[in-house]
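Holo model, zinc ion. Inputs:
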Amino acid sequence: MTHTPLRIIKEQMCEVGRRIWQRGFCAGNEGNHSVRLGPDRFLCTPTGMSKGFLTPDDLVVVDGNGAGVFFSAKGRKPTSEIKVHLAIYEKRPDVQAVVHSHPPHATAFAITGVPLPGGIHPESELFLGEVPTAPYATPSTQAVAENVASVIGPQTNTVLMANHGAVCFSHELEDAYHKLEILDNYCRILLLARPLGPAQTLTPEQTQALQQLKQQFQP
Ligand SMILES: [Zn+2]
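Output:
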């Protein structure tokens, strides 16, 4: 649960939406993000709107069923993917924010079914860790939520969604968004490196040193 005033949280939600749009992580009305406000209350982006032009009054408060009984000041309805967010919040009580998008480089891995390799880049090791891929299901269905939840472990913070996109989650919205940036940047680097030759894997000693460093970054 957050103690930040709702007005500030709404502004942060709009700012993250702008960054997602500016980075080209979503096209049209794609993508959605949310914050846990408290027991059985979540703030989420509305359906049918570009993430680049949200105002605080566009954001929607929903309950744990995603019923959207609390519409936004502008009468917007919640994102159709709210089920994914709620499944993550339910599975991981420590999660306070969820960001879902279709960042192109990460989605390239998601549509080819190529697992994200580990032990290559420090940023990915430190801030993402192991990134599982959830099986495909038709967007907006409960099956998407169930498939994403099924691959989430206690340390997971990023999931690739097969033939769809990616979802990142964290103890705060800014950090969840940063994971999305780090994910797409890592995938971009891997794709850029591919014509040059195979990526060099870190040694067990180098990986162990990163794991020790990672302890210092735990919230
Ligand atoms: Zn999506």
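Residues 16 and 174 are 7 Å apart (CA to CA). Residues 173-193 form the longest helix (21 residues).
Archived with the compound record.
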